[in-house]
Amino acid sequence: MPDPRKNKERGAALLTVLLLVAVMAVVAAGALERVALATRMTGNGGAIDQARAYADAGAEMARMRIADLTASNPAKITLAGGWMGTPQSLPVPGGVATVSVSDAGNCFNLNSVVSGESEAALKVRPIGVTQFQGLLEVLGVNVRQAQAAAAGLADWIDSDSVPQPGGAEDEVYAGYARPYRTPNRLMVDPSELRAVAGVTPAIYELVKPWICALPVTDLSPININTLLPEQAPLFAMLLPGQLTIAQARQLLAQRPADGYGSTVQFWALPSLAGLSPATEVAEQVKLKTGFFGVNVAVDVGGTQVVERALIDARESPARLVRRNWGAGA
């Protein structure tokens, strides 16, 4: 007669083996999934590296083209040739790179609210603060909010710890739910403006298309030969209270096809009669572009990479001074 205890032992052993097989299957499936993920990540990393290399090449080609553009007419830069904003497609192995160039000086330079060469000696520049306030006002921000945002920006960048009237230094930011301090240095990216006291999300979204953070404290170098009619607020801010956006837009629309030959000729226009720009403002208007923006979008096998570069063309040869990366949408 079979021993029932042996049957129970064989059943327990079989159950143990089945459990072991199940565990091993789970472990093996997890290992295979990780191997597959690692393989995909390695492939994606290689594709991104390749796309970045193509983007670097596109930015370098744009830099050389900018150097040729500035050398072809040292006296002025105009819209002749359709170089600004026109996408240029460059075929690359397995995809395409699209390059576009813009005038990166036609914007409000956030760093112009201070003056000084070293970060230990950055002082508030009243005319720069006034221009930022003027830009906000022509865009529809009320006077009180515009004053607070402009003063806050100056305090954010200047080297001292003494707040401007209506501004904010460390003691204000220390009282926030998530406290932080003012950097007391030039801005590197215009998105930093979001952290400034007095700049609400609504104000930032409103002013975002009009601002930049050039690596200098110079007043915004507006090239009157490339400024577009739709960028009229950038000219109206130079003469707050004296020039409306509509007047500035009309002025830009009447620009000669070959641009202005001198700033004296420009300021002598009948449409500007009666206006009295300060000397700094009169000199702020330029005939040439000193900074160019380059946007390179690369699509290689479904991998998308965007490079944005800033080119300094104030001296020859033009040089790359900044770049940042982002994934394509």
TrEMBL record:
The gene is gspK. Keywords: Cell inner membrane, Cell membrane, Membrane, Protein transport, Transmembrane, Transmembrane helix, Transport. It is found in: Cell inner membrane. Residues 106-215 form the T2SS protein K first SAM-like domain. It comes from Sphingobium rhizovicinum. The keyword Transmembrane helix applies. InterPro entries: GspK (IPR005628), GspK_central_sf (IPR038072), Pilin-like (IPR045584), T2SSK_SAM-like_1st (IPR049031), T2SSK_SAM-like_2nd (IPR049179). Belongs to the GSP K family. The lineage of its organism: Bacteria, Pseudomonadati, Pseudomonadota, Alphaproteobacteria, Sphingomonadales. Residues 222-284 form the T2SS protein K second SAM-like domain. This is Type II secretion system protein K. The keyword Protein transport applies. Pfam families: T2SSK (PF03934), T2SSK_1st (PF21687). Its main location: membrane. It comes from the Bacteria.
